[in-house]
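On clarity, I found the account of how folds are encoded harder to follow than it need be. Since the whole study asks how a given chain folds, the encoding of that fold should be made plain. For illustration, here is how one protein appears when written out as sequence plus structure tokens:
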Amino acid sequence: MKDSKNVLHDLAVSLGVLAAVLGILFLWALFSGRNNSIVSTYFNNSAAAEQALEKESENNEPKAEPQELQNQKKEEIKRYIVKRHIVVGGESFSLISGMYWDDIFLWPDLYIHNHLKSEDPDLIYPDEIIDIYNRLGHGNNFSTQEKKLILDAYIEVYNRYKSIGPEKNHSAWTLLWCAAKYDHNFLEKYSDKIDPEDKAAAQRYIDEEGFLD
């Protein structure tokens, strides 16, 4: 009887130890699984945070400028005075532009850069001082931006003629004809800035005489 009790006691102890071991293993597996989940979550969140930072960094990087804008910046033209000319009797803006720029038809660009006493572009007075700026273009070669500056100057002089009155109509028509030398489509491109009658008169000059060289 005593031996039987000892066997039962030893069996109970063994079962208790086994249960404890199983419990420890269960807790270890549970804890290990939770740790793996935490580690996985940590790395997933870290990756997401890293991607978010990279995206934010990309958004903060300077955007590449469109090629057209880059070209415009390359074509920006600085104007500066290279010489000063004292007017003598018999001179005109076209004569002076031919003297310094070797192109008499560039005279409107010379005129608008000088604030002279007369509002009439055809008048110039002896002893006046004219600022000679750096020339636009080289020979007969002009960039798109340079042509635009030239034609804008022509339009400004045209407006000056129109402000004087009908007595300057012939000067205005001749001026428009000369402007077409730099762009044969000038009259169409600037049609919203030109009186239809003046445009028609300038077109007749072109039809009869052709474009100026």
In short: The longest strand covers residues 81-86.
